[in-house]
Amino acid sequence: MTTQITIRRPDDWHVHLRDGEMLKAVVGHTARQFARAIVMPNLTPPVVNVAAGLAYRDRIVSAVPAGMDFTPLMVFYLTDDADPAEIARGYEEGVFAACKLYPAHATTNSAHGVTDIRKLTGVLETMQRIGMPLLIHGEVTHREVDIFDREAVFIEQILAPLVRDYPALKIVLEHITTAEAADFVAESGPQIGATITPQHLIINRNAIFDGGIRPHAYCLPVAKRERHRLAVRKAAVSGSPKFFLGTDSAPHEIGRKESACGCAGIFNAPYALESYLQVFEEEGVLDRFEGFASEHGPRFYGLPLNEGTVTLQREEVSVPEKIVDGDITLVPFHAGETLRWRFIG
Ligand SMILES: NC(=O)N[C@@H](CC(=O)O)C(=O)O
Ligand SMILES: [Zn+2]
Ligand SMILES: [Zn+2]
C-alpha cells in the first residue's frame, strides 16, 4: 500500500480569493497547497480593466503569509461592453491570463455578467487571435429551465455554437457537473478543456438534502444525480489532458451560508489536495493524480510546469467543524469528517 505520494507542485485553475478581510483569511489556505491559482474576478465591483486587475493582484500578493511562494493569475470579468483593446493589452502585458464569462445572474456576483453572447463578437475574435483562454460558468439563467438542467442546456444552446463559430478559441468549461459536459469536452478538439472541483467528484445532490437542508453542500452549478457524479469522476481520473484541477473554493461567511437564502459556494481550499487524492486512490489511479493536479492545467494555458514538489502522507486527518480567523468563521468542505491523507508540504 502506498504510504506517501510526492508530485510536482500543483496549481488551482479556479478559485475565489475574495477581497479585504476574507482575502486575508483564505489566501494562505490556497498558497500553502498551490504554486499558482487562476483567481476569479467576481468581486464587487468586478475586475473589468487592467488597472483593477493589477490592483487586485497587489492586494492578493500582500495578503499571502510570509514565506509562501504563490503566484495569482488574474482574470478579466467580461461585461456586455468589454473592450477588446483593453483585454488584449492586459493579456500582452502579462496582467491577465484569461477572461471569464458569467452569464448575467448565473451565480454569485454575476449581475454585471453578459446578457447575450452576441455582444462579445469583437472580444471573442480578439481572444481567438491572441490565444487568450475564455473561462465559462456554463449555465443558462432562464428561470423556466430546471436548475439541474442548466448546464446541459447551456452546452447545447450556447457552447456548441460558440465552439463552431470560434474554432480556434481556447475555452475552459469551469466546474463541470454533468455527463453532458464531460462528454462534450472529451469529444471536442484540444482547445477545449474543463476544470473539476472536489465536491463534484464526491457528493451528489442527495448531500444537499441529507436529513435536512445542508447549505454547506450548496454551490453552483448545483451537484447533480449520482450518474453525473460518476461521469465527472471518470473524466477526472481518465488521464485525459483536457481535465484539470480547479477547486472553485468559494468562501462565504457562515451567516451568509446558514440563512433563509444561503449563498452558493463551498470552501474547500484547506483540504483540497487531500480531498482530490482520496478520489484518485478510490479509483485505483494514484499514478494519474500528478497529471490532473500539476500538468494538464499549465499545458492547456501554455505556461511552464512548476518546479519543486509537494508530498501527502497516508495519515488520518480530522477536518474541523469551523475555521475561525478574526471575525470570519467559515465551514470547510468535509467539516467534521476524517480524511485519509495529510498534506505535508
Ligand atoms: N461556485 C459557487 O457556488 N459560487 C461562486 C461562483 C461560481 O463559481 O459560480 C462564488 O463566487 O461564490
Ligand atoms: Zn461559476
Ligand atoms: Zn467559481
Automatic annotation (TrEMBL):
Residues 12-311 form the Amidohydrolase-related domain. Homodimer. This is Dihydroorotase. InterPro entries: Amidohydro-rel, DHOdimr, Dihydroorotase_CS, Metal_Hydrolase. Zn(2+) 1 binds at H14, H16, K100, D248. The gene is pyrC. Pathway: Pyrimidine metabolism; UMP biosynthesis via de novo pathway; (S)-dihydroorotate from bicarbonate: step 3/3. The keyword Hydrolase applies. The modification N6-carboxylysine is found at K100. The active site is at D248. Keywords: Hydrolase, Metal-binding, Pyrimidine biosynthesis, Zinc. Zn(2+) 2 binds at K100, H137, H175. Its cofactor is Zn(2+). Substrate binds at H16, L17, R18, N42, H137, L220, H252, A264. It catalyses: (S)-dihydroorotate + H2O = N-carbamoyl-L-aspartate + H(+). Binds 2 Zn(2+) ions per subunit. Catalyzes the reversible cyclization of carbamoyl aspartate to dihydroorotate. GO terms for molecular function: dihydroorotase activity. It holds the Pfam family Amidohydro_1. Belongs to the metallo-dependent hydrolases superfamily. DHOase family. Class II DHOase subfamily.
